[in-house]
């Protein structure tokens, strides 16, 4: 009788081999991909800077064209709302829209998202750095970069913002960096 629990645990672990559950909604990027110092972006004034200069804060990144269609606007809306729902922790996070062209941003988008950094980046460099699911492109996802500058999570196409919020809340709660 005393050995039964030990035998059952060994049997379960070595024969049945249970698979651990996942608590995160986003896909973890393994291995992590650090922001290359060679990945340059231009800000709204035309000043060129390395994207790596944004290290030190959590970055929620969306990639799209400057014209910003409905899917782009939805991602920007989700990113803004997720950041706002973090309460006092929201200052640790920065929302970044990496535009793949230098065209003008529609005034409605400009007014709706004044706190989002709107940067221009080379689409080829972004595609090399940002992984996408099979059948999707980097413009379909929202990405999360940790304060050390490592790309660490990708959220699916047409994401559930409540699940993203849960992941971000958990990361900000348990991480002391950024």
From TrEMBL:
Highest classification ranks of the organism: Bacteria, Pseudomonadati, Pseudomonadota, Betaproteobacteria, Burkholderiales
Domain of life the protein comes from: Bacteria
Official protein name in the record: Cytochrome C oxidase subunit I
